[in-house]
Description:
The complex is a heterodimer.
Chain A: H1 13-24, H2 28-35, H3 39-46, H4 55-68, H5 74-85, H6 105-126, H7 132-143, H8 148-162, H9 176-181, H10 208-216, E1 233-237, E2 241-247, E3 253-258, E4 263-265, E5 272-276, E6 282-286, E7 289-291, E8 297-298, E9 301-306
Helix pairs in contact in A: 1-5, 2-3, 4-5, 7-8
Chain B: H1 2-9, E1 14-18, E2 22-27, E3 31-37, E4 40-44, E5 51-56, H2 58-63, E6 71-74, E7 77-78, E8 81-82, H3 85-99, E9 110-115, H4 121-133, E10 138-143, H5 144-152, E11 162-167, E12 172-178, E13 181-188, H6 192-207, E14 209-210, H7 213-223, E15 234-241, E16 247-253, H8 254-260, H9 262-278, H10 281-290, E17 292-295, H11 304-312, E18 316-318, H12 325-340
Parallel strand pairs in B: 1-9, 9-10, 11-17, 17-18
Antiparallel strand pairs in B: 1-2, 2-3, 4-5, 4-6, 7-8, 11-12, 12-13, 14-15, 15-16
Helix pairs in contact in B: 3-4, 5-12, 6-7
Amino acid sequence: MRVVETPPGREGPGSQLRAKRQERGLDLAEVAAQLHLTSAVIQQLERDDYEGLGHVFAIGYLRNYARLLRLDPEPYVELYRTQVQNVPTPVPRPARPQKRRPPLLPLSGLFLFLLVGIMGLWYVWSVPSPSPKEASSLDFSGDAPPAEPASSVPVERQEPAHSGAASPPVLLSSEPALVSMEPEPPPPSSSVPSGGVLESPPPTPAEPQVSTESSVEPGPTPEPEQPASPPEVVLEFSGPCWVDLRDSSRKFKRFGEMKAGDRLVLKGTPPYSILLGNAAVVRMTIGGEPFDLSQKTRGNVAKFTLNPTR
Amino acid sequence: MFFQRLRGVFSNDLSIDLGTANTLIYARGQGIVLDEPSVVAIRQDREGGMKSVAAVGDEAKMMLGRTPQNITAIRPLKNGVIADFTVTEKMLQYFIHKVHESRIIRPSPRVLVCVPCGSTQVERRAIKESAAGAGAREVYLIEEPMAAAIGAGLPVDEPRGSMVLDIGGGTSEVAVVSLNGIVYSNSVRTGGDRFDEAIINYVRRNYGTLIGEATAERIKHAIGSAYPGEKKQEIEVKGRNLAEGIPRSFVLNSNEILEALQEPLAGITGAVKTALEQTPPELGADVAERGIVLTGGGALLRGLDRLIEEETGLPVLVADDPLTCVARGGGRALEMIDERGGLDLFSTE
């Protein structure tokens, strides 16, 4: 019989369980009867001797044994895997095979490169008077070829560029009314954090002087960025809880059951719609500050919309 | 024929667990590459007009029970076998393409499909032809409990009995396996879908409220249990009140769901007991010594292992990652074909 040598200081899962059993004052025969196994098998487990059991059964028995002692079985199973099975951690579902792409990648890359090249050439020819600024905007479009808005941006930007403003490439918002409000000092009124960086607004072609001013002074520009990063909302679970969390842009979604010890950080754009099946086991913090869930809870289920920026 | 072989060079061998609830695909050397619900949404714009596939998989499942008149979301498999041949073929075609995306050449893989052990010759032939129609070069069939046993890591090649209980969406299969073969197998048409149905019926009877399949499934995942737990869990659900005709919300707890699930659970424990009765004594002793292994999505139902343990008095274990056992086992079987022509594993058509 082969007894698994355990590294000094770290006992095998079986001997740890034996210690727990003795702590509870449970008899070996009692445990064997409750697990529907023979005392010999339990003794074998407690010796950390898994010879002849097979990994499936050894793991299953350890799991049932831990559960009988009202312990979380996972640490023991994990220990078995690392010590006996020599598997670091099971990877039950490998991610989608990204590595299979290569056969096509060079070809499609070349094609994309050609496309971008042709578009670039066409752009250079179609603009009547090339100036140094346009060269920079051309680089900009070359940086992100697949995104459609990128190619449309330089065309819209042409007029302010002609007016002589030496501004860095900016992302334009399509609503001029909203944008024209922004240069005023209290900007957070129009907090539309769309994920991207809202920089200095694009000027209307009618007043080129304003554009130079707004692009020169860098003072107010960092201000609108503040609401773009809402305070971090963290959910910590001390027990099983079924959750359904979504953000307003529908990019972030969490649906299913969380386990004890799980920690969840909400991503995406607020407001979030939150549903917690077992709110009693959830501890929620907004930017480090604890949030009282009890007001939102009805029958242990909390369902509400949360806007952490307020 | 030649072109199909040529296309085969560019395709991976796949093992498909064509289940009533979910379809999983295991690609050789890559693991599980696809796990989607077996649902297809069909669009038909005019009466008698062309039918086209609107969505497959996750997207189609979201449409289930929420479709307008020109779209029907259907589940082409019922009780583990094909209920709608053409739709199944389309679905398989879509899935096979999906795991081969980024290929110019149409894939033509070797495919191993798992079939319920209780399926008839006609049903097996339908699955085989549907996979062939979806572009497979060669189609092998393997019985689900065999694949589940291999996937769970049971010593199937030893002269030793191992009992496996695979609870899927449509069927539950119980089998005793020894020496690469099935000694006894039985399939009952009770699975995850029956659990959902039982919950729907319970809610209608006791709350006078109608809930949909998706809600029933959500309840099952959240608070469903097969054996009384230590804590009572609750969930708030909404449904249409039959008396008032207005959607109302109410709170269900885990004990009520336990009560609702009694009937389908009794079907499963009954099948296990029958299997133990029918197993030859030597193998029965092996099973009693080592225990029953649970696989399939149904094994994730809380307390199911406890229930079967109490009912049979044998040790019961849940396999690692039970949802993917069948697909992984099929993948392993595919590897065996090349290693030693392990054709004894496969069922003839």
